[in-house]
Design a protein that fits this description.
The complex is a heterodimer of chains A (615) and B (238). Chain A is α+β, with helices and mostly antiparallel strands and 615 residues long. Chain A folds into 4 domains: 3-124, Jelly Rolls (Sandwich), CATH 2.60.120; 153-269, CBS-domain, CATH 3.10.580.10; 272-455, 2-Layer Sandwich (Beta Polymerase, domain 2); 465-615, Four Helix Bundle (Hemerythrin (Met), subunit A), CATH 1.20.120. In chain A, 48% of the residues lie in helices and 16% in strands. In chain A, the strands form 7 sheets. Chain A has a 4-stranded antiparallel sheet with strand order 1-8-3-6. A 4-stranded antiparallel sheet of chain A has the order 2-7-4-5, with no helix packed on it. In chain A, helix 14 packs across helix 16, helix 17 runs parallel beside helix 20 (450-464) and helix 22 packs parallel to helix 25 (588-611). The longest helix of chain A has 27 residues, at 311-337. Chain B has a 5-stranded mixed sheet with strand order 3-2-1-4-5, sandwiched between helices. Helix content of chain B is 45%, strand content 15%. In chain B, strand 2 (66-75) and strand 3 form a beta hairpin. Chain B is globular and about 45 Å long. The chains are: A alpha+beta (615), B alpha/beta (238).
C-alpha cells in the first residue's frame, strides 16, 4: 500500500466488521477500492453495475424504503452494504445526500472472509447466531474485566472440604471439625457424597435431642444436598443460598467436592451481597433502618453487573430484595396497627412481579382481600397500604405515576370485586385497562394469603385463554411500542424517519418482548409472570416457534445487558439511573447487534400483527 | 517555433501532439506523443482521466523544483485506487520551511525519492493517451512543460480538465458571488460536504480532486446521460 493511502485504510478500520482485521490485511484493501459518487436522488447501487461489489459509505447518506414507501434502513458514513455479495435479491436504495462510497469487489470480500473467521462471522451467520455470540461475549467480557474479584465460586473455596465416611461417630466428626477448624464437613457413602454435617446439626439434632455421641453421623446429617458446580457464578450461588435459606453449599468439580461455600466466605468477599441485604432487611426494625439498607441496592446492582451476571438474574435478585422490603414493611405495619381483620394478599405488579426489576423503579401493587371483607375493615387496609406505600417511596420506590397501587381504593378490593373488575376488563377491553395491562396482568403474590391471588389468576386465565377478541386487543396494544430501525450517524433511526438523540432501551427494546410474552401467557393460560418463563412456556405450548423463542430470549438478554451496563455506569458516576442510551455510548458492533435485536422484535411483531388482525 | 506551436493549438491537442512528435528526438517524448489523446467528441464515460497533483518548492517553474507527484486514474465514473502512484522527487535544493509544513515532506523523505530525470518518463507513461485532471492546472502544466523542455528539449501538450475552472464556470453560470479563496480544493469540497482529508500529500490531493470532479460531473449532466454516453469530453475541457 502507498503509505499516503493510510488515511483511507484508517477510515475503513474504524468501522465494523473491518475493525477486527489485522493491519497487514487492511493494508491490502485500499488498492482494491474504487471510489464512486452518488448524487442526491440517484439509485443505489448502480443498476448497470458491471462488477458485483461490497459498498462502504465514505460520506453522505443512502435510504432504503419498502414497497409501501416506509423507511426500512438508512446508511451513513462507515455503514456497509454487502447485499450484492451475499443476498439473492439485493435491496435498492436511493442516495438522499450527495454520497461518496468505497467499492470492494465481492471476490476480495470472499478472500477476506477466508482470512479471518471473526470477520467472516459478520456475513456468514444468521442474525440469531450473531446475537447468540454477542450475548455470550458480553458475559464473558464482564468476567474477564473482573477476574480479580474471583467471581466464580471456586475462587472463594480456599481449602479442600473435610470428608468423613457415613459410619464415623458424631463425636469423632466433632473432633475432626475442631482440629480442622471448620464449621461443616461432607459425609460420603462408598466415596459418594451423600450428606453434610454442620455445627448446628450437632447442636440441634444431637446434643439438644440427647442423641448418643457414638451414633453414626449419617443419622443427623442433612441429606437433601444443594450443590453448585465450581464454575457457578458467586452471584448465582448466593441466590441459591438465599432462596433455600442455607448457609453451607458444597462446590463440585467434575462431581468431586472441592470445597464448601459458606455465607461467611461470601460476607468476607462481598460486603454487598443479596444474602446479606436480605438478612439485614428481616432484622430491620424501623423504616429508617430499611431506608438505609435500600440505599445499598444500586451498589448491589453494580456489583452484580460487574460480576457478569445475566440481565435476567440481576432482575431476579433486585426483585427479591424488593419483595423482602415489602414483606418487612407489612410486618412492621401489622405490628403497629394490629393483625388484619380478614386475610389478604399483597401482590406486586409490573417489573417486580415479573422479577425483572432494576434498582429503584416505580412501585406497582394491588391488595386482594378475602371475601369476608366488610366495609368497616376498609379503614384498616387504608392505613396498612398507606404505611407500606409511603415506606416503599421512602426506600426509593417512587409512587406509581398511574396510581396503580394498593393505596388506590380501586386497587384494594375483595376477591369478589377483583373478579368482577377483571371480568369487565377482559370482556370489554377499555383503553385504560389495556394501558395498565402491564401491571394488572403481571401480578405476583409477595405477602399474605397467596391463595387469594392464585384463585383470582385461575379465573382470569380461564377467561383469557383462547379468547380471540380479547387477545386481538392485547396484541394491538402490544404493538404500540415499536423498536427503532437502527442507527444513523449518532442518532437512533425510527420508523417515521425522525432521528432521536437517545434510545429508550426499556420502552423500545424490552417492553415489546414483555408485552408479547404477556399476550402469549394470557392466551395459553400460563401462570408465569417472568418474561423468559412465559416465553419458555409459550414455546412448550406450541404458541411460539423454536426459532422465534430462541431469538427473542437472545434479543431480550442482549438489550437487557446493555441496559444493565448503562445503569452500572450511571451508578458508578453517581447520576440517577435511567433507560436512555445515547448511540455514542455504543460500539459499532453493539449497534449492529442491537439492530439485529430490533429486527428480531420487528419480525415477531409482524408475525403477531398478521396472525391477530386488529379487532 | 514556440509561438507557432501555440498557434497550432487552435487545431486541437492531437494536431499539436502530432507536430511535436515530428519535432522531438527524445525517445521518452516520442513514446508519450505517439499515442493519440482522447478526442473531444469522445464520451466522457469512456475516456481515461488521470487526476494529478504535483507538490513543489514554490510557484515559479523557472526557480522552484518538483517535490512529489501523486496521481490516480478515473474510468467509467469510478476512481480506481489500484492505479494510485506516488513518487517523491530528490532535489539538491533544501526545501523552505514553510513548504515542509504544507506538504508534510521532510528532507529525509526526499532523500528516499528518485531524481526528476528518473521520474519524468514514469509520469509521462501514465499520462500517455489520457486526459489530465488537475485542480488549478496552471502550476502543474508550467512545471511539466519546464521539465520537458529541460530534459527533452520538447514542449508538452495534453488535454486538460481543470476542476477549478469548472467550479468557476458553474458559479458564474449561477451568478453566485465568490472569491479566489472559495475556489480552493479544500473549500470547494467543504461546500459540498465532502470529507476533509487530514493528509496533504500529492496522492491524497489527486484523489480529492478526482472526487470533486465526480461531483461536478454530476452537476453538469444527469448520471443516466453520462452512463448512456450522451455526454462528451468537450464539455469539460479547459
Amino acid at each position: 500500500m502507498e503509505i499516503e493511502l493510510r488515511e483511507i485504510r484508517d477510515f475503513i478500520k474504524r468501522y465494523s466488521p473491518f475493525d477486527v482485521l489485522d493491519d497487514s490485511v487492511l493494508d491490502t484493501l485500499p488498492k482494491n477500492l474504487t471510489i464512486r459518487y452518488f448524487r442526491r436522488g440517484q439509485a443505489f447501487p448502480e443498476s448497470f453495475a458491471d462488477k458485483k461489489s461490497f459498498y462502504m459509505i465514505r460520506s453522505g447518506a443512502i435510504e432504503f424504503r419498502d414497497q409501501d414507501a416506509l423507511l426500512v434502513d438508512k446508511l451513513a458514513e462507515g455503514d456497509i452494504y454487502s447485499q450484492q455479495c451475499i443476498a439473492d435479491m439485493p435491496e435498492q436504495g436511493i442516495s438522499v445526500e450527495d454520497t461518496l462510497v468505497y467499492l470492494l469487489p465481492c471476490e476480495v470480500l470472499t478472500q477476506l472472509r477466508k482470512k479471518s473467521a471473526i470477520f467472516d462471522r459478520h456475513f456468514n451467520r444468521s442474525i440469531n447466531e450473531r446475537l447468540r455470540d454477542a450475548v455470550e461475549l458480553t458475559h464473558a467480557k464482564g468476567m474477564r474485566d473482573l477476574s480479580a474479584m474471583k467471581l466464580e465460586v471456586s475462587g472463594l473455596t480456599d481449602r479442600l472440604p473435610v470428608v468423613v465416611d457415613k459410619a464415623t461417630s458424631i463425636q469423632q466428626a466433632a473432633k475432626i471439625m475442631t482440629t480442622e477448624k471448620v464449621s461443616s464437613i461432607l459425609v460420603t457413602t462408598d466415596n459418594r457424597l451423600t450428606g453434610l454435617l454442620t455445627d448446628r446439626d450437632i447442636r440441634s439434632r444431637c446434643v439438644a435431642q440427647g442423641v448418643a455421641l457414638e451414633t453414626p453421623v449419617s443419622s443427623i446429617m442433612s441429606t437433601e444436598l444443594e450443590t453448585v458446580a465450581d464454575s457457578t457464578l458467586l452471584s448465582e450461588a448466593l441466590l441459591a443460598m438465599t432462596r433455600k435459606q442455607i448457609q453451607h453449599l458444597p462446590v463440585l468439580k467434575n462431581n468431586e467436592p472441592i470445597g464448601i461455600l459458606t455465607t461467611a466466605d461470601v460476607v468476607r468477599h462481598l460486603s454487598t451481597s443479596p444474602a446479606l441485604i436480605a438478612t439485614d432487611i428481616t432484622k430491620a426494625n424501623s423504616l429508617e433502618a430499611l431506608k438505609k439498607i435500600s440505599m445499598r441496592l444500586p451498589e448491589l446492582q453494580l456489583q452484580l453487573s460487574l460480576s457478569s451476571a445475566t440481565a435476567k438474574h440481576i432482575g431476579e435478585v433486585i426483585s427479591s430484595i424488593t419483595d423482602s422490603i415489602t414483606c418487612r414493611l407489612l410486618e412492621l405495619a401489622e405490628a403497629q396497627y394490629g393483625a388484619p381483620p380478614v386475610g389478604y394478599v399483597w401482590a406486586a405488579g409490573g417489573s417486580q412481579a415479573r422479577n425483572e426489576q432494576t434498582s429503584h423503579s416505580d412501585q406497582d401493587s394491588a391488595l386482594i382481600i378475602s371475601n369476608d371483607f366488610k366495609p368497616e375493615h376498609a379503614a384498616y387496609f387504608k392505613t396498612l397500604t398507606k404505611f407500606v406505600s409511603d415506606g416503599l417511596n421512602a426506600c426509593g420506590y417512587v409512587y406509581c405515576p398511574g396510581n396503580a397501587m394498593a393505596t388506590n381504593p380501586e386497587w384494594c378490593q375483595s376477591l369478589n370485586v377483583w373478579q368482577q373488575t377483571f371480568a369487565r376488563w377482559i370482556n370489554s377491553p377499555e383503553p385504560k385497562a389495556l394501558m395498565l395491562s402491564s401491571i394488572f396482568f403481571d401480578l405476583r403474590p409477595v405477602y399474605g394469603h397467596f391463595s387469594l391471588l392464585t384463585e383470582l389468576q385461575d379465573a382470569v386465565l380461564a377467561r383469557t385463554k383462547d379468547n380471540q377478541l380479547f387477545i386481538s386487543h392485547m396484541v394491538a396494544n402490544a404493538l404500540t411500542h415499536q423498536p427503532p430501525l437502527g442507527f444513523f450517524r449518532n442518532f437512533v433511526l425510527v420508523q417515521d424517519d425522525t432521528h432521536k438523540n437517545t434510545l429508550n432501551l426499556k420502552q423500545r427494546g424490552i417492553i415489546p418482548i414483555v408485552d408479547i410474552a404477556r399476550v402469549l401467557a394470557l392466551k395459553k393460560g400460563i401462570h408465569a409472570t417472568n418474561t423468559v418463563e412465559r416465553l419458555n412456556a409459550a414455546f412448550e405450548n406450541k404458541a411460539l416457534s423454536a426459532e422465534m423463542h430462541d431469538n427473542l430470549l437472545d434479543a431480550l438478554e442482549f438489550i437487557g445487558s446493555l441496559r444493565i451496563r448503562h445503569q452500572a455506569e450511571q451508578i458508578r458516576t453517581g447520576v440517577s439511573v435511567d433507560n436512555y442510551v445515547s448511540p455514542k455510548e455504543l460500539s459499532g458492533l453493539e449497534k449492529s447487534h442491537l439492530k439485529d435485536s430490533f429486527s428480531i422484535i420487528k419480525t415477531m411483531q409482524q408475525f403477531f400483527e398478521s396472525r391477530y388482525p386488529a379487532a | 517555433m514556440k509561438l507557432l506551436n501555440r498557434f497550432y493549438y487552435l487545431f486541437g491537442k492531437n494536431f499539436v501532439r502530432r507536430r511535436l512528435l515530428t519535432q522531438t528526438s527524445s525517445s521518452v517524448m516520442q513514446h508519450f506523443l505517439n499515442q493519440p489523446f482522447p478526442d473531444k467528441k469522445d464520451f466522457i464515460n469512456d475516456v481515461g482521466i488521470v487526476s494529478l497533483d504535483i507538490e513543489t518548492t514554490g510557484l515559479n517553474p523557472a526557480k522552484d523544483k518538483i517535490v512529489s507527484i501523486g496521481l490516480v486514474e478515473i474510468k467509467h465514473s469510478g476512481i480506481n485506487l489500484g492505479s494510485c502512484w506516488h513518487q517523491i522527487i530528490q532535489t539538491k535544493k533544501n526545501i523552505p520551511q514553510q513548504s515542509v509544513v504544507i506538504h508534510q515532506i521532510t528532507d529525509d523523505q526526499i532523500k528516499t525519492g528518485m531524481s526528476i530525470k528518473q521520474a519524468m518518463p514514469l509520469l509521462l507513461a501514465r499520462l500517455r493517451g489520457n486526459v489530465m485532471l488537475v485542480h488549478n492546472a496552471k502550476v502543474e502544466l508550467g512545471f511539466i512543460r519546464k521539465t520537458c523542455q529541460a530534459l527533452y528539449a520538447s514542449d508538452f501538450v495534453i488535454p486538460v480538465i481543470d476542476t477549478q475552472v469548472l467550479a468557476k464556470r458553474s458559479l458564474e453560470r449561477r451568478n453566485a458571488a465568490y472569491n479566489n479563496h472559495d475556489l480552493r480544493l479544500f473549500n470547494l469540497r467543504r461546500s459540498r460536504n465532502m470529507p476533509a482529508y487530514k493528509a496533504h500529500n500529492a496522492l491524497m490531493d489527486a484523489i480529492a480532486t478526482a472526487e470533486l470532479f465526480l461531483a461536478i460531473l454530476n452537476d453538469i449532466a444527469p448520471h443516466s446521460d453520462i452512463e448512456q454516453n450522451k455526454v462528451r469530453l468537450a464539455e469539460f475541457l479547459s
